[in-house]
Design brief:
Blueprint lengths: L1 E3 L5 H11 L3 H9 L5 H8 L15 H14 L2 E6 L3 H16 L3 E5 L11 H9 L4 E5 L6 H9 L3 E5 L13 E3 L15 H17 L7 E9 L2 E10 L2 E10 L11 H5 L3 E4 L2 H12 L8 E2 L1 H7 L8 H7 L1 H4 L7 H16 L5 H16 L6 H16 L5 H7 L9 H17 L3 H9 L3 H36 L8 E5 L7 H12 L3 E6 L3 E7 L7 H6 L6 E4 L3 E7 L3 H14 L10 E3 L2 E3 L2 H6 L4 H7 L12 E14 L6 E7 L4 E6 L15 E13 L2 E13 L5
Parallel strand pairs: 1-17, 2-3, 2-4, 4-5, 5-6, 7-10, 10-11, 12-13, 18-19, 21-23
Antiparallel strand pairs: 7-8, 8-9, 13-14, 14-16, 15-16, 19-20, 19-22, 20-21, 22-23
Helix pairs in contact: 1-2, 3-16, 4-8, 5-8, 5-15, 5-19, 6-7, 8-15, 12-14, 15-16, 15-18, 18-19, 18-20, 19-20, 20-21
Amino acid sequence: MIWDKKDIPPELVKELADKYGCDLLTASILVRRGLTTGETIRYFLEDDPRHFRNPFGLPGMDAAVERILGAKEEGEKVLVFGDRDVDGITSTAMLTGFLLKQGMDVKWRLPLGDEPYGLSQKAVEEFAAEGGTLIITVDCGISNMAEVDRAAELGVDVIVTDHHNPQDKLPQAYTIVNPKLKDSTYPFRDLAGCGVAYKLVSALRFALKSELYNQPVCFLNALPSNDSYIIEIAKMVNLAVIDRLTETVVPGMVGIGETRIPAFLEGQQILAWDAPLQKKTLVKIFGAGFEIYMLDMAPEIGRQIPQAAGKSLLRLKEISRIARYADKPMGEMDIFINLFTSFVQKKEGHFTPEDNTDLQLAAVGTVADIMPLRDENRIIVRRGLASLVEKPRPGLSDLLFKLGLAGRRFGTTELSWQLCPAINAAGRMGRPDKAVALLLSDDPKEREALASEIITLNEARKKLGEEIWLLVEPLAQESQERYGGKLVLAAAGGIPRGVTGLMAGRLVSRFKTPALVVSFTEETATGSLRSTRGYGLRFLLEACADLFLDWGGHDFAAGFSMVIANWEPFLERLLTITAAMELGEAASEETIFVDAEFSGPRTAQFLTTELFQLADRFEPYGEENRPLNFLARGLKVTDIILMGKPEAKHAKLTLDTGKVKWPAVYWQAADKVKRDFDKNDTVDLVFTLNRNWFNGSETPQLMVTDLKRFSNEH
């Protein structure tokens, strides 16, 4: 393995540490990971929900909220339709549970057995026959053109909420909520389906509880600038700024009627910070005859946010945590808007215990769908995971108990390897309804039975996966030469469609190329694609779009279905596509990117249990945020125990820093003992941090990634 520690400018490290109030080690890791802008850094250093982006910034959100509120008012029948994977299951449970609590007539549905992905015509027609009038899709729908058209024919509105890549043609839905739409101005495109569902629920909560819902307000602030004054006005609806106006005026030169201000303010409620001062300033600008009514927000905000009381906007700008992360200087108006937003959120109690239980589902779905753990996904997962550990919601608590995770601290690793696969198994085995029912049930006995069923399905899924791998792996091996080593393909009637994605992912790991796994029925072929080495799947799918019944997904994980008659033409076209396919270079040797190095006296200084606080700060780990890799030099191996049954494959080490003796686990390293290192050797190692939970107690330990005998060259 290659150990790669990127050189970084120390002056930049010092600058970030001073600006963002973090220690030098944290700042150095941020720089080494390329996290140097305030917008990226704040999602690593902050987890307050105030840093969530406004849900009304998502395209289609306003229309979706209005339509759902209308359905509530009119007592309409509503169907929530989701996908069969963890993201779809958690999205379905979250939105359905919220609507049920509002007293709405709502039911839910997902694809069962071999039913195709996404909204089906059968589901639309059956719901319409029951008198249903509104379908809300979650984690699906963006490619369901024909099904949405059929709903319209039957008088059923469809709200599509999704996060998959849209095609050039969009379904003619009532509205579409998707951060990846071409005209979307939402700052973060990589929400999971359950992240979009969480945003919808958040917007609905605001609409149902806030006096400000759909009520425009204007913020006005006038401040001197040399011989003139700058008048700033911002218009806000649903805590989102929708328009701004800036006028620079020289006192006595123009009347207010000669500016754009009256038209902008017409019919608006005007808010000011220190209204008496603002009125005096405006009189200076426009003369004694000028009069305008404005509401002074400073006293009321000061009561809700004591640290703001009695301070000017200029002073508040200096102490604002949000302003600290702005990559461009924030003006007084920006500070006023942020203060008002925090004030409303606090006064109206936006972040409730119910919100935390929804974040639990959003966290699980986000991790399961391998979404980038950047931007607000970090707050979703961090807060959702903390809530899940502290007080798991019914359904999840039952699964955690059966998985041995109840009553202990755990992180994204346990979510990824234990909880998410258990929930996902229900969908892979054709029974995602069991998982949704578990998450929505109020009956402890029913939840106990459903949790047991899901654990049983998970065991069956593991067994099936191993059996199908024995079929899939040789087929993929045979296909390598046919596609020039750029793609592997496994297609057979004996492959259940529920495991095609799982198998494609394993093939990517095995062959280091894009992979396609296809399941056949009598009428259709259904495929799952997974990619690697920088190859986006959209080109392949678009080139074959005329052959598909439907297709869609992400850049590196996608799927399609087609009639059997199109299979052979598809294979012919695939040969042409792969011939032109360009892949990035496969790594000849694995590279470990080192985040921080400790050597000499620094090893004992930094290699203490306090280092876990730093590792916890960079949680959650996952896609686009790997665990921190530390390099320590000159540690002595004082003990080695071989582990594993029936054959010892792993090594448990005791490493001495000079002050502390650390337990360390080195997987698949039994054959390296005495060959590459031995007891009493001094070694250099790259490791991550881990907490071992055993018999109700927690022990900190190192997880060795690579180890070499100590070199004096360093």
